[in-house]
Amino acid sequence: MSKTPGQRRNIHQNPGTTHAPEDPKEMVASGVGESNRNFPSHHCTVNHDVDLVKLLISANTVPRRFARWWRRICLIDHHSPIARLLFRSDTAIKREMSRQLTYYPGTIHPLSYFRFIWNCLMIVTFASVFQLIPYDITFLYRIEDYYPFTAFHAVLLGADCICLLDVVINLYTGTYTRRSQRVELNLNIVRKRYLRFWFWIDLISSAPDPLLTRLIPSRTLENSLVYCLHRLHFHPGCLWDLWSLLSVIKIFRFRTFLRYIHSLCEWFGLRRKVIKFIAILATVLTVFHWSTCLTFLVLRLAQGTDPERIDERSWTMKIPFWNQTSLVRYMESSYRTLYTVAHITHDFNESMTYDDMLMSLIYTIGGYILKIYLLAELLIFIRILFSSASKYHEYRYELSNYMRHEQLPAALQKQILSFYDFRHPRIYSRWSLIRSVLGEQLYGAMRMQILGPLLRACPLFRAVFTEQQLTALALGMHFQLFMKNDIIARWDGTSDERAWNMVFIVTGTVALYTSGWKKVLHLEDGEHFGEFQLLFDANTVKFPNLVAVENSQLYILSRDWLDRFLQPYPALRRNLIDLATEHLRQMEQMQRGSVLEVLANIETVRMQPSSSSAKPYHSE
Prior knowledge:
It is built from 26 helices and 11 strands. The chain is α+β, with helices and mostly antiparallel strands. It folds into 3 domains: 217 residues, no CATH class; 117 residues, no CATH class; 151 residues, Jelly Rolls. The chain has a 5-stranded antiparallel β-sheet with strand order 1-8-7-10-5, covered by helices on one side. Strands 4-11-6-9 form a 4-stranded antiparallel β-sheet. The N terminus and C terminus are likely disordered.
């Protein structure tokens, strides 16, 4: 689900909170400077983590508390790495929570904590059924393999029950498309897509066939479907294990199994190369297991299971095979599959049946293809070692060594590394190189894709500047990253007005404070501030202090650069100032209550309006 630009939030002055001292001497005496060296003149007391579940769902009884707990674990999990990558900020995640609570209260979010726990359970279940189902169909064909009810079939029955429960949960769970990065919570659309194809595969392959087998007379178990195919003699008794054979279509869910593994690895922060290695390992082991079962299944179809009727040239007649347990037969089949696929050794003097020759030929060709694939993956793995991720770790290591060499304080080292990790999330890129490769025209188009919506959201710029001029503004802006509690702009009454910068918030939250450090409002994703301060002096508009409430990504437009840009266009500058003056005059005519009412109408999730009588700042 793509994020919409955030709306402005007023901050309620909680009487129980402690405000930051206004006097620098008072700040030093209170010890704030020692506890927060990065922001010595401000101690943030903003409660940004609003519990929307408690706010919107009342729970005064035990059943309602349980219902609220269930709703909480079904909401989007803000600790999920996929959710953080998709929504990028706490504000966007809270909007997603608000959207789900308001419009889709009965839907389980695909990025919720409950869905993560359930996916972990399904990883174990899928890994079990992918191993148990072919083994059950191929190697368990005798009556004593089914009577009495064995622990093997008890595990298989439990896996089938979990898969049936997964079918029900899928009907109440939204979907997340990784390619388009879209979250769909409308159950009507989700169920319509699910019922088209995957529902029937999940339902048929999850039938509890071990339980159905208990309802069949023991004498009928001698005539399995595989046995009837071998004898080419069919009758209704041959269909008793049809459900067991149909359960092999569960293999179509192997891609879902790999996706669950990928999500679990991302949750634990594993690197991409490790995730790919785990996926390849799971694929190779599953293919090898199914190939082993297929080896014995072909033998049953071609030769049968009666040792007296099997061709003497078959490999099963050269070893004590038929009088062994199913596990020993599986080990013999797996060894034959291994040395055929891996081409360990071949005894060409060995006499084989035609079906043995065909299987050996297929497995040998498949083994060569597998070797080529693994070799290609190894070369890709070596190439990845020199990718941007390796540069990220290399430069991070150099930065750590430099800070240790300079004997910087441990707190400062940790802060610098946190800034580096947030600025380069597991990758390292140079915008100067990208700009030189793309050229100004393509680079300007790319910048407009990022900054165009932010610039057009400003009424002054949208009304005065053309599209080409907005592109020039986008090229003149520069990116900056601010960590939590960093000062973005400070105004003490004596600062240079030409040093003021207009800020555009990509992700994060920025708080506005008066010169006396009184809280005014919050700016969030997609918002901006400072267009009037770029055009007027301190006698016309107030210059506030800007502070990052959380890790925030901003684009900066400096007043000095805008003056140089407007210097060749005096008429454009005059129109811009006239329009800004008109906006200021209209805003000054509005009463304070009207301003707060307008802010309340455009807010999605907000705290109560401030009771402070501080004068509001002009912001679009």
